[in-house]
Amino acid sequence: MKRAFDILVAGVCLIAIMPVALLVAAAILIGMGRPVLFRQSRPGLNGRIFTLNKFRTMSENRDAAGNLLGDGSRLTSLGRLLRRTSLDEIPQLWNVLAGDMSLVGPRPLLIQYLPLYSESQRRRHEVRPGITGWAQVNGRNATTWDERFRLDVWYVDHQSIWLDLKILALTALRVFSGSGTSNPGHATMPEFKGNGG
User: 171: exposed, middle or buried (C-beta count within 10 Å: 0-12, 13-18, 19+)?
Assistant: First the structure.
């Protein structure tokens, strides 16, 4: 039932917001150039690796040695707007249709975090990752890693269509308020370094 709900809603949303998606793509192309999409490998259900799609929000600016600058230095004004309004997430609807993601579930994190999880934290991979989730409507990026993982595992244990509908409604409210898009002192979240630090 959850999968059928995902396909139906993602398909309808893609059709409805296609004009917005084309405008965003054009703005990125004009303001930052190619590529328009940010694509990165992330772990999904049972840790299976898939390619996450988002609209690009950062420049490719590098230091004198050729290394990419930090996230805060590369996040553009357009990128900030896209993140604050969650418009950068639109391409993930394709990930939902492909079966890599769900509308609601724990957010897919970086592959290098996999060996750092505790047994409890690893349970977040018992469900498909989501475009939004219980942690996102309870602080988004303004929470601690411990709290975020606790909320993810809570969702795994309590998931239902009704909870998903509640999370989607709360997500809409968070998007309109623009709250919780970053952790204090960081462009998004600080790097997760494991439970010991």
Answer: buried
